[in-house]
Structure formats: C-alpha cells, structure tokens
Amino acid sequence: MSCCNALFDLAQLGVKQLVPYVPGKPIEELERELGLSHIVKLASNESPLGVSPKVLAAISQVLPDLTRYPDGSGFKLKTALAEKYAVNVNQLTLGNGSNEILELVARTFLSPELNAVFSQHAFAVYPIVTQAAGASARVVPARDYGHDLPAMLAVVDDKTRIVFIANPNNPTGTLLTPATLKAFLQALPSTVACVLDEAYSEFVAAEHKADTISWLADFPNLIITRTFSKAYGLAGLRVGYSLSSPEIADLLNRVRQPFNNNSLALVAAETALHDADYLQSAITTNNQGMAQLTAAFAGLGLAWIPSAGNFVTFDLKCPAMPVYEALLQRGVIVRPIGVYEMPNHLRVSIGTEQENAVFIDALKAVLDV
Ligand SMILES: *Cc1c(COP(=O)(O)O)cnc(C)c1O
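Above: query sequence and pyridoxal-5'-phosphate SMILES. Below: predicted holo structure tokens.
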C-alpha cells in the first residue's frame, strides 16, 4: 500500500502498525452473500429486545429540532446520570460510545515514551487507542482467561500512565471479585489512571458486583466507563460515559469534541436511563438465555468460560473458523476471536429464547451431533 504514497511511510509508527478492529459481520452483508432472510446475529453483544418503545417515542419528539446543534454539554443526560449514581455532574464525561472515552483517556495521558498495561484476551480497543497515541502496550498473560491483577501490577513502571481493566471482560466474560479489584487499586500508584471498563455492569448479579462508584472518593485515579450500547439497547446511537474525579473529567472534556453526542442519542439515553422495565427485561432475558445456552453446551460436551456478561465463549478444542463459517451458511452469525489469541473459541451473544434455539440447532447440525 505504501508504493505510491510517500505520506503513508511518514504516518506515526503506532498507527502504521495498527491492526484495525474487526466488527461482527453485519446482517445485511450475510443476507446479500447468501440470499437468506432470517439471519440470527449473535455477534456483537447487542440487545436482543429491540429498541424500547419509550425511546422511540422520545426520539420522534426531537426530530423537528435536527437543524440545531445538540447540547454540547449533555446537561440533561449528565444530570440524570449524576442523580442516578449520586455523583456530581462534574465527575461525568459523555462519549460517542464508551469507546470514545477509552480514546479520550489515551489521548489525555499517553505519548510515545509512555505505556499502558492491559491483559491478554482483553477488549480489542485498548491496544488500538494505545498504539494510536504512539505509546507502547504491556500485555500481561491472562490467568484462567481472566485478568491477572498482581502480574499487571508487577509490570507497572514510572512510564505507565494507564491500566485498562475490563470487568466483566469481553470476550471471555470473566469477572474479578470486588476484593481483588480494590486491593489492586490500593496498590496502584496514584499517578497511573485505572480505567475500569464496566460495559456489562448491568448484567452482573448484585451479589458479585463491586460498588465501584463509591470508590471514586478514595481513588482520584479511577475512571469507570459505562455504556448504553449493551443492556440499554442503544448500540446504534453511540452513547457511553465515564465517572471519575472532577479533575480527570475536566481533562477528558477538554479533549472531547464539542458535539460528540448527537441530539437523538442524548434524548434516547436519558429516556433509556429511566426505563427500568426495559433494563429489567434485558437482565431477565440474559439470565434465562445464559442458562439455555450453557445447558446446550453441557449437553454437547463443549466447555465454556463462565460469563458475567451478555455473551458466552465456548471452546471447540480445534480451529473454530470452519465452525464459524458453517454457522454462517446456516444464517447464524457468532464471533470468531482468533484476534484475541483464542483461535479455538467462539463467542456467542445471548439472544432471545428463539434466537438461542436457532443457534443451538445450527451448532448441533454443524458439529454433526
Ligand atoms: C461493547 C464494549 C464496550 C462499549 O462500546 P461502546 O463504544 O460503548 O458501544 C466497551 N468495552 C467493552 C469491553 C465492550 O465489550
């Protein structure tokens, strides 16, 4: 690609070495390829419930105002979040998805001589934002597919500015205990930002969930990220946020583009936040679907990684791509995770009962059992 464009070679090294994020295969693409119509997509941890009717109604109300710029401060959404989580508005930063928050943190704290620490098999966006900032990544081997926090702590040095922790982690679904997490924060130098990525927090059972927001008072270097993309069912609108100390929020808001959340996204997220029925139904559907899928794996003699998220990763004990491809032929899209150094595993998102059943039947047919 560099042969005829001299500028290509002059790109920042980290950017040149980037491996682009590979999203789940879009439904329309598979429809085009196969001429199939009833595609089941369980590849991107999206909500299987569809958009909440309350959100649809709220969005249509603001359509006539689309000539105007959105509220660049996200005042109403931030006020609603601050109320819900009992934090100050100045502790919140809104992002175009929580992915943008990850990028804002990297751009705020990283530069070429510095490094960020994260785990093997951790969310693919951490290496991307780290490298894009020209910084280096310290990838720490996983332990039982989860984050090995003591080993991560051991590689932190005076050039480390960020540790990324996904809890639960995607794609493995592993969850750290509150005690382990807190001990890590206590040991981490206060000059290192700890990004606690809680994209799946809503799915974690209360008895296993750490009250991390209450920790913000003790750890001014803690940055908690959350999203409306998963349990709230708004992946297409791109709204995420972080909770942090006011000082860090101030920095992130300086880097942030002034209108990073569009008008529809702001109103949709605010409405979704108050839609307790939708959230509860998302959680119930997820718990039932998790039981349905893991029972099927057990029946098939397949091992899976116990997951606290809205997806589950299972082990084929042989290269997974042929199984992925064969599932595609049957109109079922799951997620291959070879890029996460897990070539023998596939990740499946929890769908509706019926979608899960279609997946299970297709898997049985593909595995010929
Ligand atoms: C899905 C996901 C996100 C959220 O992405 P958005 O940009 O908010 O849609 C963040 N972190 C992890 C680990 C995820 O799996």
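The first helix runs from residue 6 to 9.
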